[in-house]
Amino acid sequence: MSRIDLYHRAQQLRSARVPFVLATVVRAQAPTSAKPGDAAVVLADGTIEGFVGGSCAQATVRAESLRTLATRNSTMLIIAAGDDVSMGSDLAGVVRVSNPCLSGGTLEMFLEPALPMPLLVVYGQSPIASALVEGAGALGFEARLQDGTSPISEDVEAVVVATHGFDEEEIITKALLAGVEYIGLVASHKRGAAVIEALALSPEARSRIHSPAGLKIDARNPAEIAISILAEIVSLRPREEVTPLRLVAIDPVCEMEVAMVESSLHAELDGVTYWFCAKGCQRAFVADPHAFLS
To answer: What HEC string does 254-272 produce?
Structure first.
């Protein structure tokens, strides 16, 4: 895969709202198979498309890329052959890993997570709806203007109904069934209360509907109302805690960390799955597993 092909692939993934990590080799100290400028995309299932080194290096890139997706923070990864992994490991954003499989070289690569922007769906053809779509990008949202017949995908974070009386109950019901956490109804206090009351909702469902949508900032025109709604969405967004990579195993042969995903090499013995950085470790274990389990 050429670099241009890789960038096209990355754009495809972004357009499809698929999370991935772009891994780019920035420095290579021989002997290494990867060279500066080599790159790959790493998907959430551990699939690697592109080239950033041999099998052992790929195992480390896979594990650290999945950590990067979990933490949502970019990482400078240093893969060295020696046992000294302390140098540079105390720097923020730097991870240094000892790779016993390497033949003596060192790889440095930048791991950059590419995550879909939170998705806001707006219903209506009003000036407020247009102002919402126009202003959402500045706050890091992807905004889509839809009509009432369009389905709501499972990754929608917020829905704003600005249809001014058209299909409001149907759209709100659809958003509730899709599990949308924030549903804003652009309406007066009186009409909004009547729409919500007609739906006969549970207290939990009712708490997800905000009417009139937006924070109270004395907004007086469509742009100001849009700002108040976007501010309310931001204020109510759940702040996800950083979580470590949950599924990591130790290669029983070389003691490297390996991501426990289907794309990693593995073998089963007596109902237990063992994970490997490369074919060599896998073959050695399968040939004589008890030599590495004692």
So the answer is: CCCEEECCCCCEEEEECCE
- Yes or no: is domain 119-236 CATH 3.40.50.720? yes
Tokens of 37: 């400028």
Domain ranges of the chain: 3-116, 119-236
Phi and psi angles of residue 12, each rounded to the nearest 5 degrees, phi first: -60, -45
C-alpha–C-alpha distance, residues 162 and 130, integer Å: 10
234-243 contacts at long range (C-beta below 8 A, 24 or more positions apart): 234/139, 236/181, 236/182, 237/118, 237/157, 237/182, 238/181, 242/70, 242/71, 242/72, 242/73, 243/70, 243/71
Q: Going residue by residue through the chain (294 aa), what tens digit of pLDDT does each one get?
A: 788 899 999 999 999 999 999 999 999 988 888 999 999 999 999 999 999 998 888 999 999 999 999 888 999 999 987 655 554 456 778 998 887 765 667 899 999 999 999 999 999 999 999 999 999 999 999 999 988 778 898 899 999 999 999 999 999 999 999 999 999 999 999 999 999 999 989 999 999 999 999 999 999 999 999 999 999 999 998 766 555 556 788 889 988 889 888 889 999 998 999 999 888 899 999 999 988 886
Q: Apex CA 263: angle with CA 259 and CA 268, to 5°?
A: 80
Q: Name 24's bridge partners.
A: 39, 110
Give rounded-to-5 percent helix, strand, coil for the chain: 35, 25, 40
Q: Per DSSP, what are the bridge partners of residue 250?
A: 257
Q: Sign of the CA dihedral 246, 247, 251, 254? A: negative
What residues contact 167, with CB distance under 8 A and at least 6 apart? 123, 148
pTM over 0.85: no
Largest separation between any pair of C-alpha atoms in the chain: 76
